[in-house]
Task: structure prediction
Amino acid sequence: MINEKIFLCSICNINSGTCNEDCKFCSQSVRYKADIERYKQKPLDAILQEAKEARAHGALGFCLVTADKGITEKSLKFVCDVAQAVSKEVPELRLIACNGTATLEQLLILKESGIKAYNHNLETSKDFYSKICTTHPWQERYETCQNVNKAGLVLISGGIFGLGETQEDRVSMLESLRSLNPTSVPINFYHHNEALELEPNPLTTDEALELIKLTRETIPHAQRIMVAGGRELMFGERQNEIFAYGANSIVIGNYLTTNGRVMSKDLEMLKSLNLEVAKKV
Ligand code: SF4
Result:
């Protein structure tokens, strides 16, 4: 692990807080009235600015996220337009889309517009899923991941820990992920928002580190285990330990509705660990 280069990714919420689904961990659902910024389409100038900043700090991945259950005709066009504009201005970035459930046809259209990878998380185990979401089934998530593979896009799929799931649920989710053969596995740690009815994340830092290790061990063929949302809150001063437990990728900058730390701090952390930033995929 210590010789591995660390892949940096940045996420851009190009449509925020407008989702009608009821995922209990998500402040972007309109149902919970969380105090977050909500907008239909982020202005292209702002997106390009974020893309340039991410690249300037070493990011290779740039993920275009829309808050909705799945792709609509309108959001598909918006994502394609944004992808083309970002590819033109910052061609070194590898573009990822994260737009919810998607058909094979929709994914092929994204691919044509320059999207290289698609992120769709299973979130949790098949059995626990109905406890955290009642408006769409887990199976639909799994099928979208299968569609991503069929479309020949790179599959990025992971989940979120700390929702009240059992250890069996965690193992089950990781086994389901393994069956999809994802290239990258983003793992998130629930970041509580008081507008949400879920209990705060009960995991200790040691338990969370062990979950990174378990992810790596269960999905050994994944090229990247990425620590994504909740990193600062979950690991605090011990963020530098995540790499020794199997992480080789992180999200830098802000998350969808919460702030990350300034990007330069992460670069300093990697330098202090003698870890190099990956310069190619
Ligand atoms: S479908 Fe996605 S955006 Fe909508 S509430 Fe669930 S996690 Fe949030």
